[in-house]
Amino acid sequence: MMQIKQLDARTYVGPQISVADLDDLKRLNIRTVIALRPEGETADQPAISSLRDAAGALGVTVHQIPVISGNITDDDVHAYRAINSGTNGPVLAYCRSGMRATSLWALTAVEQGQSPDEILRKAKAAGFDLSALADRLAARAA
After folding, report:
1. Angle at 3 between CA 120 and CA 100, to 5 degrees
2. pTM of the full structure
């Protein structure tokens, strides 16, 4: 089983998935996947096209936002929010470790009215330290 974590009622995050993981996602009722890695970021990641093809056969949609590690832009947050708002079921966002996925969730959640403290707590409970994002979250909350 994949090492994914649930952040809220609709959001799962985790590390790189493979075609073999797609059946597990379907069992969790996840029908939308957001890949946050640029194509070819590392040699061991599957091509986004192979994930899309296999996922499509299972009724799962795969989106890609090629986020550069350590450099989440406002455009990335906007793209993530747009994909999320267009879905009505659980979503899995993944990257290499789950950190970019958790960070994008956090930056979107604060815009939707969750408190920065609550966001940081939920992320920490899932194993992600977002303390480096605390000032950015506070600024977005203001």
Report:
1. 45
2. 0.94
77-111, pLDDT tens digit by residue?
A: 999 999 998 888 899 999 999 999 999 999 999 99
32-50 pLDDT tens trace: 999 999 999 999 899 999 9
Strands (E), the chain: 5-6, 11-14, 32-35, 61-64, 91-94
Query: Which token pair is 77?
Result: 């947050």
- Compute the residue count for the chain: 142
Task: Provide, for the chain, the percentages of residues in helix, strand and coil under a 3-state DSSP scheme, each rounded to the nearest 5.
Answer: 45, 15, 40
- The count of other CB atoms within 10 Å of the CB of residue 52 is 17
Query: Which whole-number Å values give the CA distances from 96 to 65, 84, 100, in the listed order?
Result: 13, 20, 8
State how far the Cα of 7 lies from the Cα of 42, in Å rounded to an integer. 26
